[in-house]
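We emphasize that the prediction below concerns an isolated chain of 252 residues; any contacts that depend on oligomerization or on bound cofactors are therefore not represented. The input was used exactly as deposited, without trimming of termini.
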Amino acid sequence: MIHCPNRDGFLKSYSTVGKNNLPITFARCSNCRGHWMNSFAANFLKEISVKHDTRQPDVRPGDGTHLAPLCPDCKAFLTRAGGDNIPHGIIAFRCPNDHGYFFPAGELTKFKAAQHAKLAYHTLWHIPLPSVASVLLAILAVIMLGSITAITATIQKKQSLQSNAQQLLVSQHALSPAAGTIFIAATTSIPAMVTVFISSTKTGPIPMESQNRTVHTTTITTLPPGIYEYFFTIFVNGKSVITDRYSIALTR
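Result of the prediction step, given as a token string:
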């Protein structure tokens, strides 16, 4: 059993499907109803997954009447999280050794609502975000959410169609959010259709889901440990180009 950062109960683990169909795991204390999770889960957890988080605790950590919360992993004191990615008035704590974030009861729901509102505002008004880190929590701030279309808007204006795939491919990322799972994201400089081919799998090219046809994502599950090579095929105006090869290692 793992103690809650508040030291008033034990954490129970939950699994759900987050944004982009990503597998998400997090923990909740049945006593104070606070949430403990890593930044990946906090960033990609759907709002609907936390709407049960409504009851406020009688005493909030860090208000002078309660001991500072402890990291369940390394037992270090958690510090109050702040910055452009956490709105004023929302209470969250982070481990100084990057083991995760703790949201007291009610705070995770408010954080997800604020995150969604900020993305919707910048998208609706076509205002570029100062940086991805201004809306995503630390560590995985380099991963673009599918809905952050404003980030690529300035790139689209500056670049025209070119035959070279590496000029069409602005960025690509691959990570393993859970055992046997690969999440791949690719951003193109102009609207396009994208497929990804992954070696050592029995599937052919995998069509990627797109937002505004510039941010493309897909998730592959139930893969055994090993090193996987992958490349993208980008389709624009009836023509296709193939990118360089990349690799990602899956461990147990």
